Amino acid sequence: MMKVTIDEYLEDGAYLCRYYNDNFKPIRDLRYIARANIIDPDYKTTPALRSLLDNDKLQPKSPGPGQFDIEVMLHKGAEAKDTAMTLQSTVDIGGKVSVGRSLLRICSVDRGTINAISQLDAVRAIGPVIPLKLMNYFAWGDIQLRQATADNDFQGTSGEQYMGQGEVVAIADSGLDLGELGNPHPAFALQPDGAVPAPNRVLALLDAVQEGFPSADHKDRSGHGTHVAASVLGDGLFEDVEKNQSTRGTASKAKLVMQTVVLPDGDGESVAPPIDLHDLFLPPYQQFHARVANNSWGEYWNGVQAIYDDNGMARTCDDFVREKWDHVIVFAAGNDGTLKSETGAQIGGAVAAKNIITVGATHSSRNDSYPNLVAEISSRGPIRNDVHLQHRRIKPDLVAPGVKLVSAKSRHEDMTACGDHDQAFPLLRYSTGTSMAAPIVSGCAATLRSALIHTGRGTAANGNPVGPSAALIKALLINGAITLFDHWGVALPMREQGFGRVDMRNSLPRPPPPGADYPVQHGYVDYGIHPEEPGLAMGHTWDRVMTIRDPGPGQHRRFKVTLVYTDLPGQILQNRLLLTLRHIDTGEQINGNIFEDVVRDNNVQQVVWDNIPTGQVSLRVNAPHIVGPDERQTFAIVWRLYDFNPPPVL
């Protein structure tokens, strides 16, 4: 009996499979099999590592000429510890081996050793270790958070605004302030008026530095972590209502778990998280119920746009969200937008993951005449796919203000000068980068979760509350985002802005109007997270019919729909869902992602229908390709009907 299991869909009908036999003839004799071959060991070397080997280049932070630090990514089901033992007994790896959940990191190996490692059956890919760094290079008004939370629809029974109450955000960064849990920065332990001490909202300081390095002391010498954390959930430092300015974070009632990932004896910006990011995300998720994770760090630019599998981080992120479906992971897109790239794009590696939210940076309203433009430094997409070395998925997903943002200043006496500050407000400082944009979105994600749960508009199974999925939070943010335009009224390319700039006024779900039969104005479905509806099987569809009513004489409507689903790990889509919007009365149909330079091979799809006619419309999600006969795909779909106005000319 033949035993074959599918590990991953590659592309164009090709699958990576595990076959438990040495005889390929029974497989090759099957009429529906065109070819069946063992993976060529040369195929296992990623483009980034091949470039170093073929051109005799020195690796960034190289261990020496002809020596490389590598990451060995394993096939599904392979045991990392067993593979490490096999390597140590059969290959002269010489250097130090670190073991993760599904990958190994090996230091100081040469070309011959790399070739020997590639012969091992358990090895799926070998890439270079890419050094990591912090992405450091007046947001409320720009993202419409003040207007959104002031709405009576988003206030609790006692009148308080929803600002992340009940949520915990995990932030992996350079530490927090003085590194003392009992002596918190005022941004995290003051009432809004700054007069009366409030409970400390910092739950824990966790050492998340990679094993083998000195333990973290949590002291924020660079000021980066303190600034980022306060952008998410700081409160009480400074408020100028008359000028509509605030230093509150976008989830100023949430709580914090700081995970220090910067080396205490380094340059203050060198990041060394666990080699397997499961070990970064899981502790705050399990121990503190953190459901949002902010990561304002990423890879050094080495002149080549990284692909999904150049290291194990993107795959690990996708795997974690697939397993923990309610966990929102946010990453800064990077600050390499002005650097030369052969593809014209820079986003790659971890931030190419499908199931995370990748955030680019825009200018802001603070001393800036053009807040609607993407910052020059913000890394551009789309991502690169190694199958045909072509551009594929849209990245970044969103943009948010990231230029000269004011936030909390670390009180550490050795803090390096990485941002100016106003002498009148010694606990504040400015900073710029996608590092600053990402926490804006992380806070918005926490606030959305809080609003959904506290208003009872989160999903529920059999009367038991179930928190919103990460896919739903991402869909709400993307569907509510506004398209940015240049000085001439032309929409900025999606490679710069993704699906637009976050706008919480449009993202927060609103209840249906009185007497409405269904919330056509703004609605959502978080499909497949309940046992009674496990998701779509291959060939199945989900449909919803609703009515577009007459907006009145001279008025026009824009109907916007966004589909997001959490895919299986893999550099291309494993499960493929398609979004279509059809007008039942006219027969006209629009498919998802019919935009410039965008393919439908994306687990985020969107339809925007301007001047949509009145009458009945049908939303449909179908599943033309699902990996495995027993596999099911969950999804979130969000829609909103707007009064349509032409784009502004700046």
From TrEMBL:
Domain (Peptidase S8/S53): residue spans on this chain: 164-500
GO biological-process terms attached to the record: proteolysis
Domain of life assignment: Eukaryota
Residue positions of the active site: D173 (charge relay system), H224 (charge relay system), S435 (charge relay system)
KW Protein biosynthesis (keyword) present: no
Keywords annotated in UniProt: Hydrolase, Protease, Serine protease
Family assignment from sequence similarity: Belongs to the peptidase S8 family.
Name listed for the protein in its UniProt record: Subtilisin-like protein
